[in-house]
Amino acid sequence: MSLILGIESSCDETAAAVVRDGQDVLSSSVASQIARHAVHGGVVPELAAREHLVALNPVVESALREAGVTMAQIDAVAVTQGPGLIPALLVGLSFAKGLAMGNGKPLIGINHFIAHIYGAFLDGAHEALEDPASYPLLALVVSGGHTSLMLIEADGRARQLGCTIDDAAGEALDKGAKLLGLGYPGGPVVQRTAEGGDSSRFEFPRPLTGAAGKPLAPENLYNFSFSGIKTALLYHVRNHAGADGKLPPELLKDTVASYQEAVIDVLARKTMLAAKNFHVKTIVAAGGVACNSLLRERLTQLTPPGVRLRLAERKYCTDNAAMVGGLGWHYFRRGEFTSLDADSYARLPAITQVPFLGE
Ligand code: KG4
Ligand code: ZN
Predict the structure, then answer these.
(1) Residues 6 or more apart from 50 whose CB is under 8 A from it?
(2) Residues with CB under 6 A from ligand 1
(3) Which of 12, 184, 291, 311 to mutate to test the pocket of ligand 1 (most atoms within 8 A of CB)?
(4) Which of 15, 171, 269, 294 qualifies as a cystine partner to 167, CB 3.0-4.6 A?
(5) pTM here?
């Protein structure tokens, strides 16, 4: 039995978790900084770093307490190394290095993007990960920083089929909400505002889907683009604005519902196209936007019979450290550790193999 302490600080959540053997989440503490950033309408990296510094100690202590363990019982410290906001990552990484060194534990640097996929396989969901019948597996990773379709084989070979060529899906929701003056973060508020709205009232574009009679270049078959939807929203607001330059309140619900529909429709359609063309056995949805009820509903409706759908539990969709501690165990069991002079990284490196499969 091995216990990994996970630490996450890549964006605006400070999180720590204790995970047993890559699957049993004994504790998962998340301190959100949303209120601190909301006044600025988005995440301020420097502010995030300062907040992490304050929150890390109490969050780690609470994760250990809740799991009923001490640092002495922890086998390794896994920490998000990248991709993410460098100032924010640096604080978590430095903290984890100190904790590991001071307690004589190995350090494990974790890729946040892969950790999001792993978030769909925690707790009771773990068995599916080891079942060869689950593969090939298609992972839709949708967050504030990523929109990507990854194809994963049973031996862990992986490749990105497509990704966003401009904004991420979460970013499109966040920016759309900001434009409408709905606040930050946009995803949850868009979902709430859209409830009961008529999503067919306004037609927003479906970029890179071959809709609107535009031929789709083969290299864009599984790519996404959301900046056009956002621009269409800007023009929509201008066209319908009242004397105060704002969207009349009676149009708000239907506008938001139509905007959300456009983003989710593209995500679901591209996922299904890739699932069909690559004969996948499992579809996974992970990352903050995978919390979205319309996306969850749409994927559930469209997943063909014979294909399994694994929606990460909502608490493991948005940033958390359980996914970090869980993934860390796979490195631990192989004795693959990270040097104490390792740096954080901002961008997603090319992924050809996932660390949680194969030897
Ligand atoms: O995974 P995450 O917590 O952080 C990143 O790695 O980016 O994802 C945050 C993103 C934000 O863009 C947020 O608006 C979006 O996830 N999000 C949602 C919902 N909850 C969070 N988007 C749509 N519907 C939601 N319910
Ligand atoms: Zn994330």
Answers:
(1) none
(2) 11, 143-145, 170, 173-174, 185-188, 191, 287-289, 291-292, 318-319
(3) 291
(4) 171
(5) 0.97
Is the Cβ–Cβ distance between 115 and 38 less than 8 Å? no
Same domain (yes/no): 156, 302: yes
**What's the token pair of residue 108?**
């494990």
How many alpha carbons fall within 13 Å on the CB side of residue 256? 28
Same domain, 170 and 38: no
Residue among 92, 69, 82 nearest 15 (CA): 92
Same domain, 91 and 169: no
When divided into structural domains, the chain yields a total of 2
Per-residue pLDDT tens for 111-128?
A: 999 999 999 999 989 999
Helix 169-179 to helix 249-277 angle, to the nearest 10 degrees? 170
Question: Contact at 8 Å (CB) between 180 and 237?
Answer: yes
For the record, the structure tokens of 64 come out as: 């250990």
Tens of pLDDT, residues 253-279: 999 999 999 999 999 999 999 999 999
Q: Tell me the residue length of the chain.
A: 359
For residue 16, what are the β-bridge partners?
7, 29
